[in-house]
Amino acid sequence: MARSHAHRIALLFNANKAFDRDVILGVADYLSGTRVQWDLFLEEDFRLRLAGIEKWQGDGIIADFDDPVVAAALAGTRVPLVAVGGSYEHPADYPAAVPYVATDNFKVIKLAYEHLIESGLRHFALFSLPEASENRWAQEREKAFAALVQHDHARPEIFRGQCTRAPTWNQAVREQIAWLHRLPKPVGIIAVTDARARQLLQACALAGIAVPEQVAVVGIDNDPLARVLTRIPLTSVIQGAQEMGRTAAHLLDRILHGVPLATARILVPPAGINVQASSQHVPATHPHVMRARHYIRQYACQGIKTDQVANYVGISRSSLESHFRQQVGCSVHDEILRARLDAATAMLAQDDCNLADVAHKCGFTSSQYMHLVFKRELGCSPRGYQQRVRNTERMHDGRDHFESRRHPAMMPAIHAA
After folding, report:
1. Quick one: DSSP state of residue 398?
2. Among 88, 101, 259, 313, fewest CB within 10 Å belongs to which?
């Protein structure tokens, strides 16, 4: 059978970013679920390059309009175009006469803010990016945060800091630490990206600020790379980027079939929030317990023992055990084991893993011992837990739900209204 005509479509995104990758995955998902035939153009290294794009002879473009250089390069193009980017408070800020699919910045921030409120916090701050044309989406998130906090009759605390550059890195970290020290405690901080959240967690570690007892942190993007680069597992809002990709592909498909959609503007809410240790704030406890739990969260997977925790806190093992029994209701060893179990469940929930590798990376003495802990604490084997996660995801995928993965059970995600 002869192959029908395949449209040539350019995807102008930087796939080295988690958000852009998810948009591209959404486009791919649309193509796999339909009879649409597209030949896709992306740079071989998945970077976004515009040199010569005006000479590209294709049938359609889906592009990242958060980048003003992209928007300028495509101004006046005669190739059918769908733009993807962040939402704006003012309608005039959207590109004119271009179909636009946007992440709903207000609902993204609202989801993170409400999670911190439900964690029992009463002070809130935002870690943003310096004002720049390429950071317009970050400034929109600032506006959303300010509106939510002011609605609750409080003063929004927003810190932009510096961009990430090697020559100014040390100064940037010092400024972050100084800002953290100025904030009232305990405080919940929303970072405009997971990358900014990761910087903040590092600053807290350097300053000896306990996370999440004194500072609870929520990022945005649910970036797998950021998760593995932080000692304390990061809570993160999951943007609806894949849904945005599917929607953008659907719009372009309709345009290619003659449907006029120049004024289409679609806002996509976040898919949920992945709740991890960085935001699991608990009411203030004894300072020795706070310090011990902070140390455990960072080093539990490195095989630490109760004596090492007591040495870090600066008190005897028996005194620390007594404080833990009174404040937490468990032993220091139980707390270490719980942190290792959290790390193991997070790894198993991501993909197929060698159990011996999981046990080693999470601080268990052997895979057999990890198996015993899973059976005792979760009532299933490590592989059984992994299958439970997959079954839950399959059940909820059709309803656009997300289940955050937490010990001792998989807790339901918080969804935007």
Report:
1. T
2. 259
> Dihedral of CA 229/234/237/238: which sign?
positive
Q: Assign residue 156 a region: left if phi > 0, alpha if psi is -120 to 50, beta otherwise?
A: beta
- Rounded CA-CA distance 77/63 in Å is 12
Give the rounded distance of the alpha carbon of 119 from its chain centre.
Answer: 18
Q: What is the third-level CATH fold of 287-390?
A: Arc Repressor Mutant, subunit A (1.10.10)
101, 82 Cβ separation under 8 angstroms: yes
pTM of the full structure: 0.74
Q: Identify residue 29 by its one-letter amino acid code.
A: D
Phi and psi at 33, nearest 5°, equal: -95, 5
Q: d(Cα 120, Cα 354) in Å, to the nearest integer? A: 38
> In terms of C-beta distances under 8 Å and separation of at least 24 residues, what long-range contacts does 205-208 make, across chains too?
205/231, 205/298, 206/173, 206/177, 207/177, 207/180, 207/181
Please list the residue range(s) of the chain that carry CATH number 3.40.50.2300. 7-103+240-270, 106-238+275-281
Q: Which of 294, 295, 314, 316 is nearest to 304 (CA)?
A: 295
Nearest to 180 by CA among 222, 217, 144: 217
Lowest mean pLDDT among 5-9, 68-72, 231-235, 404-408: 404-408
- Kindly state the DSSP code that residue 281 receives in the 8-state scheme: -
Angle at 205 between CA 202 and CA 210, to 5 degrees: 125
pLDDT of residue 336: 93
Q: Which CATH superfamily hosts domain 106-238+275-281? A: Response regulator (3.40.50.2300)
- For domain 7-103+240-270, which architecture applies? 3-Layer(aba) Sandwich (3.40)
Give the residue, 113 or 4, on which the prediction is more confident.
113
Pairing of strands 215-220, 81-86: unpaired
Question: For residues 253 and 36, is the Cβ–Cβ distance under 8 A?
Answer: yes
Give the percent of the chain with pLDDT over 70. Answer: 89
Give the helix, strand, coil percentages of the chain, each rounded to 5. Answer: 50, 15, 35
Residue 405 pLDDT: 37
pLDDT, tens digit (0-9, with 9 covering 90-100), for 301-353? 998 999 999 999 999 999 999 988 888 778 999 999 989 998 898 888 877 78
pLDDT tops 70 at residue 410: no
User: Could you tell me where the beta strands, DSSP code E, fall in 299-353?
Assistant: none
Distance (Å, whole) CA 407 – CA 389: 12
